């Protein structure tokens, strides 16, 4: 009756790619793949908000930086690729390093300011001619980063703590300077701000407006048309990301529609995976699943990366569509090694696919695999958004909620209940911190309903009533809520209230035969309503509810 809710060879000869590495050197191959692969929508938008604040702070409103999360690189880098300026960053690496400091905001600010300093100083336009020049560029970027921390209200102590948290070479034979030199440059930038608050503003703006543009003309004179297209493309991408930042700040979905408009202007110039993937996410955000699936499918055709098919599948699951008729689609999904999936929604969709694969019954092996995938998501921290703690907590709560459903299907109610309590605790943490709006959506209510159902299975009658009281306060009047309340009152011996709750449930769904069985049991407990109870039991029995037939046979 009640169901749980549920190659590459880097082509340096043809493309100028200059990289300034923030910490240690990494291979060009990984960065090339990141630029041409999919990005993490939320991480990218959160990082862009840092950049927007910094550029506005020095009078540069639109510098057209494209930010892409690039996990498993342990780095943050500034890159010029095909005329566009990128900042690639490993968000988990930044999180781990920032944990070594007291103030994560200033650490993140320093990291991104350093890479922006490379771009604004023109370092990414020319190949490194020597270790000395490379070190000089790193020190100039550190100076700019120190200046930006000062401008944001940081202290000298913050600079010292930040620089000490970053890996450094032990000698002067690396592309990066040793700790003492980097700390000195960062503090120089910090002190320059305190002495003359316009010091870097003047120097950076001058470099941005003159020196940078001169270098572009010098090195790309033969590609003026392509550069113009790249500029227009990047400008539209930048405008789209700013719209998304505004949406995250005020929740007005008009910003999402504006972002889609700018992305489409960008794709009219050229289509690439980043814009296609972001468009899919934006259409999903406004509930336009048809267009979202169209772009996810387009991303799969472009890359043959099964992650995009899983994201397509995720949208179907959100719409309640679990049946897949395309055998080719099924073959691709079932040949995926789940530990190669690095996207939270894609991995979770794969887990749900195996759980729901057999529409007629629960398959223990499929459910065990679904559980295994969910534990992989948790253990490998795929659910984490380093710059959005609330989102990370709610993602983890959703994992626990899914595990609740899986273990419940296996009739392991105690384990199921332990996971639902973990999910509730995470939601309550966000709620207690004053962000109630984030946890009163459908997911939170589903967790509450599932919690009440398990409490009924475990005969935790008082707990079930407390849980359903919360749902009623949230104006969640559903069949499951009334069913659970009826079972709870019946379990406590309060059959009068049980009958009332069952009747409300039957009113909502008169065709649910099991409800007549449970109401019949409570009616039969009272002499004055015994005959009505027999009628309910006959109704349930004639509808095929075997337990009702057995009780009637015993009465005869």
- Secondary structure: number of strands: 4
The stretches of 5 or more residues where confidence is low (pLDDT under 50) are: 1-27, 58-62, 219-224
The residue fraction in helices comes out at 55-70%
End-to-end C-alpha gap: 27 Å
Residue-averaged pLDDT, rounded? 77
Structural class: mainly alpha
User: Which series of helices and strands comes N to C?
Assistant: EHHEEEHHHHHHHHHHHHHHHHHHHHHHH
State the gist of this model:
This protein is 67% helix and 4% strand. With 556 residues, the protein is mainly alpha-helical.
Helices and strands in order, then pairings?
Elements: E1 18-21, H1 28-35, H2 41-57, E2 65-69, E3 76-81, E4 84-89, H3 91-98, H4 104-120, H5 131-151, H6 156-165, H7 179-195, H8 199-220, H9 224-250, H10 254-269, H11 273-285, H12 289-303, H13 306-318, H14 327-334, H15 344-356, H16 364-379, H17 389-409, H18 413-432, H19 442-457, H20 461-473, H21 479-491, H22 495-508, H23 513-524, H24 530-542, H25 546-555
Parallel strand pairs: 2-4
Antiparallel strand pairs: 1-3, 3-4
Helix pairs in contact: 2-4, 2-9, 3-4, 4-5, 5-7, 6-7, 9-10, 10-11, 11-12, 12-13, 13-15, 15-16, 16-17, 17-18, 17-19, 18-19, 19-20, 19-21, 20-21, 21-22, 21-23, 22-23, 23-24, 24-25
Task: Write structural notes for this entry.
β3 (76-81) and β4 (84-89) form a beta hairpin. The protein contains 25 helices and four strands. The chain is elongated and about 100 Å long. It starts with 17 loop residues before the first strand and ends with a helix. It has helices at 28-35, 41-57, 91-98, 104-120, 131-151, 156-165, 179-195, 199-220, 224-250, 254-269, 273-285, 289-303, 306-318, 327-334, 344-356, 364-379, 389-409, 413-432, 442-457, 461-473, 479-491, 495-508, 513-524, 530-542, 546-555; strands spanning 18-21, 65-69, 76-81, 84-89. It is mainly alpha-helical and 556 residues long.
